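Postdoc handover notes: sequence design on the structure in folder B. Input tokens:
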């Protein structure tokens, strides 16, 4: 069914682990450890397919390990789509980062084009 998202990291540099759907519009995405350092999770790269035009979703990445989160410094994830093939930064009002214990959580509200 359209809008029932499908995730993959099965490409060069893809690094997502398990993905869990927690509601109609929310997914929790675990990030695999960085190469050569099992304790670090500083970046992520994954593909989402089967979106529906205008669909809004919340992605939560609960196991980031950045000591001073770059998202709190104004950086936002880069995204692109088939309709917008140029990489663009997500608007900062769609990105939230917070600390839970040792790990850092990044939340992103994305809208399909």
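Designed sequence:
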């Amino acid at each position: 069914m359209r809008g029932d998202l499908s995730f993959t990291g099965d490409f060069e540099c893809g690094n997502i682990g398990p993905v869990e759907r927690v509601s109609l519009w929310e997914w929790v995405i675990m990030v695999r450890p960085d190469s050569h350092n099992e304790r670090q999770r500083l970046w992520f790269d994954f593909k989402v397919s089967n979106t529906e035009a205008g669909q809004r979703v919340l992605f939560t990445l609960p196991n980031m390990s950045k000591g001073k989160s770059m998202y709190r410094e104004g950086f936002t994830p880069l995204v692109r789509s088939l309709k917008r093939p140029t990489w663009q930064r997500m608007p900062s009002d769609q990105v939230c980062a917070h600390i839970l214990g040792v790990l850092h959580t990044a939340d992103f509200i994305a809208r399909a084009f």
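Context for whoever picks this up: The mean pLDDT is 78. Don't rerun without checking with the PI first.
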